[in-house]
Amino acid sequence: MANLINTTVKPFKTTAYHNGKFVPVSNETLLGKWSVVVFYPADFTFVCPTELGDLADNYAEFQKLGVEIYGVSTDTHFTHKAWHDTSDTIRKVQYPLVGDPTGTLARNFEVMIEEEGLALRGTFVINPEGQIKLCEIHENGIGRDASELLRKVKAAQYVANHPGEVCPAKWQEGAETLKPSLDLVGKI
Fold it and tell me: Do 161 and 38 contact (CB within 8 A), yes or no?
């Protein structure tokens, strides 16, 4: 797999179910704000609603940071609406659920499982210029944690706003950062 870090999101156009409506979503939609794109295998499954519900429970915190979340599967936007209408957990979701029935997005982000027509669990943090700053892809049996993603988004935003500084392991907002220099070599 090619390294997607610091690459620009490839062009795409699709439809999402968002706040009771079908809305267009494209690579242009991601520009001008921080975005988190979360791929999951399929609607009406098991681990997926726990993750999407966790993101929904933390959505206000992401919004305070100026971040929009996009949940993406290879289902259609119609299926997303049906799932939203029938699941108490998914009914809490206020961010767009993006349909990717052609697999274009899953292929663009290199998470497509071709033989299944489903996506791996992929998480991407994208800056306002449309560049991928964080990429995590893992096996579908492993669920993600929204609070850890929130911490990583804060770190990505901090690094973007503070050139020359980096965030060490377990960095939390307000904690000390590092300024890489010759003087630090071998002293950490």
Answer: no
- Listed in sequence order, the residues at least 6 apart from 185 whose beta carbon sits closer than 8 Å to its beta carbon are none
pTM of the model: 0.94
Q: Per-residue pLDDT tens for 81-97?
A: 999 999 999 999 999 99
Q: b/e string for 161-178 if b means 16 or more Cβ within 10 A?
A: eeeeeebeeebeeeeeee
Which residues are CB-neighbours of 58 under 8 A, at least 6 positions away?
A: 146, 147, 150
- What string of H, E and C letters represents the secondary structure of the chain? CCCCCCCECCCCEEEEEECCEEEEEEHHHHCCCEEEEEECCCCCCCHHHHHHHHHHHHHHHHHHCCEEEEEEECCCHHHHHHHHHHCHHHHCCCCCEEECCCCHHHHHCCCEECCCCEECEEEEEECCCCEEEEEEEECCCCCCCHHHHHHHHHHHHHHHHCCCCECCCCCCCCCCCECCCHHHCCCC
| Residue 135 is a catalytic residue | no
CA dist 72 and 75 (Å) reads 8
Q: Which residue is catalytic, options 4, 30, 48, 93?
A: 48
Amino acid at 65: L
